[in-house]
Amino acid sequence: MRKLLVLVLLVIVGATSMSAQQERAITTAVPFLTIAADARASGMGDMGVATSFDAYSQQWNPAKYAFANKKSGVGISYTPYLETIVNDVSLLNANYYNKLNDQSAFAFGLRYFGLGEIELRQTIDQDPTLVKPNEFALDGSYSLKLSPTFSMAVGGRFISSNLRFQDGVQDSQAANAFAVDVAGFYRSREIAYSNYDGRWRAGFNISNLGGSLQYDEGGQENFLPTNLKLGVGFDFIFDQDNILAINTEFNKLLVPTPRDFNGDGQITTEDNDEYQNISFFNGVFESFGDAPDGFSEELKEVTWALGAEYRFREAFMLRSGYFNESEEKGSRKFFTLGAGFKFKSAQIDLSYLFSTSQVRNPLENTLRFSLSFDFGEEFFND
């Protein structure tokens, strides 16, 4: 019963943020696609579009797979969600990649978000009906080096959201959608500076480009979390044993901003209907200039993050990061710490989040971990 109360409260909070005129937060369907699913990225402030390659690049930038050092690899991660309130809500993630040759690679990924077991009943004396709502995404990608320092990737994704509850009138059905990703990654050759060597990195990823999600035939349509990621990074290579990577990343949802279409001073049902009628294609372009308060509000819709990773002999890693989102657009602000340990072909990563916002973070005080393996012949990238 407590689980049901938690979900009701989450719905109320989400509805309040949508209706508040002074806080035009953008909400989408399947927000689990935007959760950092691996401990390495979450240890650096939820970033990964321009960091160095790892097995979890499928979520952040699949173009990085073309720079993989080994023939193939797998990654498995587990993220508890709302751990301080319930114990059976979590995000599971699995990835597999395989290099076809030195120039190209393909990868597959699966993300599963389970909301645990919920009891539903009409009266307190009624025998409960047990339901297990869940969402998942299955995706694949192909990456190709266009030059020794630049690669691009395309990906496809099937999304299923099974959040409807069966009742006596209508059976529950999952809402499904398809989406695509387009990504690019740049990694320079090693450059000799006066006191150290260095390497530049940059990346972009336009993810979840696709139609809306609809739970009921003829009902309200919900935008997918179409997102633009841009990032840059630099590796300070002090010697073969000590490397310090500095990274920064910017994110913007390519989704229209909720607004007052008829100018009556409030967002009404009619405004929401008109908002839902915007096609995803038009919404992507409108998202760059549709904020009611102009350019200043558009900037508030951009989140940013800073992160660092120190690697010693590619066997021990320390990480830290900071993520920032405007108070009017969600107010996610947090510091993260992380560590990684590698032995032969296996690596385990851990991360921890400290919220600095007045709004409670669902992942606050949560320990996340990931496990990855690489196999086969080694590829030597310049």
UniProtKB/TrEMBL annotation:
Positions of the Type IX secretion system protein PorV domain: 19-259
InterPro entries the record matches: PorV, T9SS_OM_PorV
Signal peptide: 1-20
Keywords annotated in UniProt: Signal
NCBIfam families found in the cross-reference section: PorV_fam (NF033709), T9SS_OM_PorV (NF033710)
Designated name of the protein: Type IX secretion system outer membrane channel protein PorV
Organism per entry: Flagellimonas aurea
Lineage: Bacteria, Pseudomonadati, Bacteroidota, Flavobacteriia, Flavobacteriales
Gene that produces this protein: porV
